[in-house]
Design goal:
Blueprint: E1 18-22, H1 26-38, E2 42-46, H2 49-59, E3 63-66, H3 75-84, E4 91-95, H4 100-109, E5 113-116, H5 122-133
Parallel strand pairs: 1-2, 1-3, 3-4, 4-5
Modified residues (4-aspartylphosphate): 67
GO biological process, one term: regulation of DNA-templated transcription
Organism: Candidatus Staskawiczbacteria bacterium RIFCSPHIGHO2_01_FULL_39_25
Amino acid sequence: MESANKPSGRKTAEGQKKVLIVEDEKSLLAVLKEEFESEGFLVVTALDGQEGLQAVDKENPDLVLLDIAMPKMDGLTMIEALKSKGKDIPTIILTNLDDLNHISKSVALGPFDYLIKSDWKLQEIVKRAKMKLGI
């Protein structure tokens, strides 16, 4: 898990929103992190759902950007674990899985945005995150 050196909390002292990006593709993780940081977000990253759960507990992000297909713990299992802990964090699912089964399972877990990676530009993903956060 990679974390910025800022105190935990929903907002930093500078008022930045904190985004947790959970993605196992390191190259995509790096460009997403860079894009969100360039838009003024504080970014915390994790490579799988287990790291993601630890990051939620430690960093208390304002939003989670989450892949589904990952090693150790997939994104849907991470969402279920967050719900069982009573965590209600705005979440955007960003995945390559475009089959109806995964979409249906995601929708059943809550009101999440479900984005197919190949259909979205980086700037549009950040814009969607801002909309989700009301900024």
